[in-house]
Amino acid sequence: MKIGVVGTGAVGGFYGGMLARAGEDVHFLLNSDYRHVKENGLIIDSSLLGKIELTHINAYSDANDMPKCDVVMVCLKTLQNKAILPATLPLLLKDDSIVLLVQNGFGVEAELAELLPGVSIAGGLAFIASNKTGPGYIRHIDQGHIDVAGYNVKNLSLLNKLVEALNHSGVTTRCFDDLLFLRWRKLVWNIAFNGTTVVLNAATDRLLQCPQTRNLLRDLMLEVIHAARACGKELGEELAENHLKLTDTFPPYKPSMMLDYENNRPMEIRYIGTFAK
Predict the structure, then answer these.
(1) Model pTM greater than 0.90?
(2) Which CATH number fits domain 2-177: 3.40.50.720, 3.40.50.300, 3.20.20.300, 3.40.50.10140?
(3) Which residues of 69-107 are buried (b: 16+ CB within 10 A; e: fewer)?
(4) Which of 65, 102, 158, 261 makes a 20 to 30 Å CA pair with 164?
(5) Which fold has domain 182-273?
(6) 2 catalytic, yes or no?
(7) Which of 186, 233, 245, 277 is catalytic?
(8) Residue 274's pLDDT band (cuts 50, 70, 90)
């Protein structure tokens, strides 16, 4: 199985790197740090796994140079999808390939299906705290498991094979039937923490330690849970408290939206905050 990774940043670099370390045939598409990674490889500096140095990886700056892949893991920020994926994915896909969107937010699979009719698409929800801190350097802070589900995939055998490969690499991965349920469940954390860290200019630890902002986070999570229920996805209210307690165990963490704000980059507000159709 050939696996392509489009977007070799904090998420794609970690998962692609773990698969490559386990001996999978992984091919990475890079942009700004292509030359550095081509010459020096990829480093995953993990608080859980230690320092993983991948000195030789299949790195490319142009999708035309990459082989056709059985599975392509898209780990870009969603704001880049329309500009990059319609031109890139057709170069990487076979007739029966699967595109796995390992991205935040709501509606990304439906949007890609409109851009590329006929392509088999699945969604991946990554529960991970990681940042790209330099060229080819991924700082893995906590967590790391993935939940996946098909969107319009008729033959799930390839997706199941990827799940097996991820589990073998050390990434706990589960396959589900209901993608929208998974998307709603992930939004409970993302909507609460991403926006609040930006508006209040505070990392997760400060928000959780203050009773007022902790209550605000809980209220935001409950609002998303109630919205999910109104759309037919039954999430329990205890999920809010579970998310808060889990995040208590993290080191101080700045979510992706806060890092984008601090670096004057566009933020994924449409997909995380306003629900694309």
Answers:
(1) yes
(2) 3.40.50.720
(3) bbbbbbbbbbbebeebbeebbebbbeeebbbbbbbbbbb
(4) 65
(5) N-(1-d-carboxylethyl)-l-norvaline Dehydrogenase; domain 2 (1.10.1040)
(6) no
(7) 186
(8) low
